[in-house]
């Protein structure tokens, strides 16, 4: 399998390690190469990439939207989100998918299956690209409510309005969300607030957080964000950001190879690697 990643900058990406483990699991031979593309050279480099005999590649920041005009097909979910993180190359044609949101939902379902029994409510913090993917993955699940809070309220409203038939939740400012915190079983933080080197930053006040709420943060550097640390101290169940990274990779790998693989199997080793590099606990 000839696989890879495009983005900028990507030298510190964990995806090569993840996909090498998946290749080992399946017994397939192959490689996962980093194609770091400078924004000034995007169009030229993509043309060159088309000449290679790749089976597929991942797309990360800042190209998840920019790649779309170069695709031959895009699936409905990725189209709705307006972003692609996985490209499958089939007979010289590029097919775009987005596994980010579903990656997080898959990881949450394995760890906290009770969240998806039909009477639970979720709150998403943030309304950027990551939030869109997670929102569209979540509204397809058995949840009573999926609400969004954002600094700029109109951006949260625009996410909810794209599929107003399926949407089932409120739009909040962060102050409103803080007051309603106790009514949610799952809280997912999707912005970059609290990401290294701004480790101390936290998106909302957790005064009203109830014990046993699941708090998920897609930031994985540091492993313990200020949000997760405080949530843990308040008795919440915390879900760290590296699981989304791992599971979006698992779903991408399954698109490329049509083989089922286990992300859970490599989770402990992945955790050890991340903690040895950036453990701030
Ligand atoms: P991504 O595609 O990575 O999600 P994005 O589209 O730029 O990034 O979205 C960034 C998200 O982080 C938005 O929800 C943004 O809030 P606004 O919509 O109000 O801009 C949020 N965000 C970024 N910096 C923030 C900050 N300092 N405080 C609060 N929210 C912030």
Looking at the overall shape, the CATH architecture of the largest domain is: 3-Layer(aba) Sandwich
- Helix percentage: 25-40%
Q: Structural class of the helices, strands and pairings?
A: alpha/beta
CATH superfamily of the largest domain: NAD(P)-binding Rossmann-like Domain
Unreliable sequence segments: none
Major beta-sheet overview:
6 strands, mixed
Radius of gyration: 19 Å
Principal-axis shape equals globular
Share of β-strand residues: 15-25%
Number of strands: 12
Q: What's the number of domains? A: 2
Top CATH class of the largest domain:
Alpha Beta
Bound molecules: 2'-monophosphoadenosine-5'-diphosphate
Cα distance spanning the termini: 38 Å
Q: H/E element string?
A: EHEHEEHEEHEHEHEHEEHEHH
Q: Which sequence of strands runs across the widest sheet?
A: 2-1-3-5-6-4
- CATH topology (fold) name of the largest domain: Rossmann fold
Structure commentary:
The protein is 37% helix and 18% strand. With 281 residues, the chain is of the alpha/beta class. It folds into two domains: 2-98 and 243-275, Rossmann fold (3-Layer(aba) Sandwich); 101-240, 3-Layer(aba) Sandwich (Rossmann fold). The strands form two sheets. The protein has a six-stranded mixed β-sheet. The chain has a six-stranded parallel β-sheet with strand order 9-8-7-10-11-12, sandwiched between helices. β11, α8 (226-233) and β12 (237-239) form a beta-alpha-beta unit. The longest helix has 16 residues, at 242-257. The relative contact order is 0.13. The mean pLDDT is 95. Bound molecules: 2'-monophosphoadenosine-5'-diphosphate.
């Amino acid at each position: 399998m000839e696989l890879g990643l495009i983005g900028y900058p990507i030298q510190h990406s964990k995806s090569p390690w993840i996909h090498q483990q998946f290749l080992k699991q399946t017994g397939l031979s192959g490689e996962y190469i980093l194609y770091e593309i400078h924004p000034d050279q995007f169009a030229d480099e993509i043309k060159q990439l088309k000449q290679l005999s790749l089976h597929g590649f991942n797309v990360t920041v800042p190209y998840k939207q920019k790649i779309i005009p170069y695709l031959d097909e895009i699936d409905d979910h990725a189209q709705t989100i307006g972003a692609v993180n996985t490209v499958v190359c089939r007979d010289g044609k590029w097919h775009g998918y987005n596994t980010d949101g579903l990656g997080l939902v898959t990881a949450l379902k394995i760890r906290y299956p009770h969240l998806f029994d039909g009477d639970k409510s979720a709150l998403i913090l943030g309304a950027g690209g990551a939030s869109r993917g997670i929102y569209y993955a979540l509204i397809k699940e058995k949840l009573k409510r999926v609400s969004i809070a954002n600094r700029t309220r109109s951006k949260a409203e625009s996410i909810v309005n794209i599929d107003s038939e399926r949407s089932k939740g409120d739009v909040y400012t962060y102050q409103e969300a803080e007051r309603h915190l106790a009514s949610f079983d799952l809280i997912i933080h999707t912005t970059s607030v609290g990401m290294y080197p701004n480790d101390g930053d936290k998106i909302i006040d957790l005064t009203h957080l109830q014990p046993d709420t699941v708090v998920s943060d897609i930031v994985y550097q540091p492993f313990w964000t200020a949000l997760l640390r405080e949530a843990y101290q308040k008795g919440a169940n915390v879900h760290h950001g590296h699981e989304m990274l791992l599971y979006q990779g698992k779903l991408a790998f399954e698109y490329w190879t049509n083989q089922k693989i286990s992300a859970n199997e490599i989770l402990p080793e992945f955790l050890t690697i991340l903690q040895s590099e950036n453990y701030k606990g």
